[in-house]
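Re-running the complex after MR caught last week's input typo. The corrected sequence lines follow. Everything else is unchanged.
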Amino acid sequence: MALEMADRGGISYLCMDGLAERTLSLAHQRRDMRTGEGSYDTRMPDIASRLLPVAAERGVRIIANIGAANPRAAGRYLADEASRIGLGGVSVGVITGDDVSEYVRQNDPIVLETGRKASELQGPVVAANAYIGAEPIVEALRLGAAVIVGGRIADPSLYVAPIVHEFGWNFDDWTRLGAATVIGHLLECGTYATGASFADPPYRVVESFEHLSFPLAEVRPDGSAVLSKLSDTDGLLSVNTCKMQLGYEIHDPARYFTPDVTADFSRVQLTAMDGGIAVSGGAGTPRPSELKGLLAIDEGFIGEGQVSFAGHGALGRARLGEQIVRGWLRPLLESGAIDDFRVDLLGVNAIHGGSSEVRDEPYEVHVRVAGRARDRKVAAAIAQAGWDLQIHGPAGGGGHRKEVRPVVAMYTFFIPRTAVQTSVEIVST
Amino acid sequence: MELILREIAFARAGDKGDTNNVNVATYDERDYEWLKRHLTIGVVERQFHTEVHGPIKRYEFTGSKMLNFVMERALHGGVSRSLNLDAHGKSRASLMLGIRIAYKASDVPPSRDA
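Corrected-run output:
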């Protein structure tokens, strides 16, 4: 769809937010510990070989945080690929400075979640990144970059930057920066505004999901905008889909903190009109004095083992399975080697736990045993116990599976702006 | 009289660290004031109490007529370490919409007032 947006969206800028909290931790996991390579967005080859040529032809500038844990390597890769496929003169802007691991090492900041110093977390620091804002992107745009990649650029800032650049706003124009942040927020999750994660029949119906458009915004100089989607696409763009995205991952709507502004979403108006949804009323107050940072901490491994039961008595056998597996793991559970542990009955209580509504007995139940431990062997033993339920457990267990995966946990801290030095490098093909 | 929230409202859940937010809007904006009176923090706490271990706050989007519930220590440590299959807590929107609200015949939601 990004291709189609660039090709026939009539847009000047294509902004892509490819980085969630967990995505960054996954990228850190992929990073080769010796060379630091390979930890940018896994979609990069497609972006280079398919999107770049179309964007170059249409004059669409690309802004994305797909550099993930390694923006420099991402920029180099894009520049190399561009010249390899014959796209001469594509200037790639690389934004760095979000890596603040040195600051954390020297200053040992307080962690929001625990109220204690970072060094008191129970695991080594894998990485530390600060959320950075639109300013370095605007600088890269001024320098003529056609493609801009960075790491932990705040999601809405990717979109705020081209708006500020086009209209020549100042970075202390809080009302307009707030309005641009609202627009960025509505766009940053792509199809979340255009019909995805919305259908709940019969109350909320989306006719077809085959060809979903991303949303695009036509922004006016006063900071209001009209949201639309590509013609001849499926999905749904409505006041209600926009409402859901407006509130997505927001805490106090009057104070949404970003690196650029403290945005006020509380009075935003969404109005249906010909050609799309009008967005107005976004505002803002001065930006927070500190930037938010994410600490990635190595917290060992999650082990997971699963087995299914079906037919008459499935729930009873699943409950017996839970009892059996807790018995097998009792020595480990009592030893303190397991940091967190649960047994889920899928179809009964796996997702909402004790808040699940009690229903009639399901026909099939899936038992999932999961635990987190520092020691890979302990995590593996948890996974094995779930797997073993098929062999040494109740009758009729089938389809067992097991997995052990590393855990990079994310924690929050705050860092003074002066300690975060962003820089812009232009890599030309 | 009683309704299930899903009959008159819709919601989406999101995560930041170990904090979960669920924003709730009504299909008929005339029901918004009714929602504000009935979907209190206490009601939400009762529905979420086994999963949420920190305070719950309620905010208003006055322009778009939505309530936003922000729940701390709500996601078993957050997406990167939670053992819950739904580590993001996205399905909590459906837990919200499963809330049953009892009301008097004199206090019917406007959309149902024939």
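None of the earlier attempt is carried over here. DSSP finds three helices and six strands in chain B. The beta strands of chain B are 2-4, 9-16, 19-26, 56-61, 66-71, 100-102.
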